[in-house]
Amino acid sequence: MSDAPKHPADPANELASDNSAIDPRDFRNALGTFATGVTIVTAMAADGRPYGVTCNSFASVSLNPPLVLWSLGMFSQGLTIFQNASHFTVNVLGASQQALASQFAKSSEDKFAGVSWTPGLGNAPVLTNSVANFQCRAANRYYGGDHIIFLGAVESYAYNRQEPLLFARGGFGRFLAGDGKKSP
Q1: DSSP conformation class of 163
Q2: What is the tally of structural domains in the chain?
Q3: 122, part of any domain
Q4: Disulfide-capable partner of 131 in 40, 74, 82, 94 (CB 3.0 to 4.6 Å)?
Q5: Residues 6+ away with beta carbon under 8 Å from 51
Q6: pTM to 2 decimal places
Q7: Residue 177 forms part of a structural domain
Q8: In this structure, is residue 181 part of a structural domain?
């Protein structure tokens, strides 16, 4: 007899049919113990309007070639904008940009009201004063449960030494170095 974990033949079907033994709320709480950076992913809609969404599912995939990923809920308002965009920009937020993260996390007719930005590759907005930005060509999409995973080929990037904004356990925070002091 093997001690290997036993997995259902089709995990996606298991979750879709509400037969999972894992409690979704408790699972989300467990995932929340993993601190992430906070980003706003932007793209230009086909009608020429900028669109953006707060996202903490951003991750690096590969250095060579330079690839990143992020995911968006299957029923998100802007899903078709990102599915049809040739490019997107991942704007990494700084510790002082919590209000901006909240602004882009809410449904709104004009999330860009009062926001300074410049058009990047494919006209995807590059937000002024972000800690870093990664301008990406939309390389591929993958279905992952109730989300779509977007793979981006990084074509341009920039960064500075400002302190990043973090998110954990449902709230915003800051990074403290091992000695209890803020990182340089």
Answers
A1: P
A2: 1
A3: yes
A4: 94
A5: 42, 43, 44, 45, 78, 81, 82, 111
A6: 0.83
A7: no
A8: no
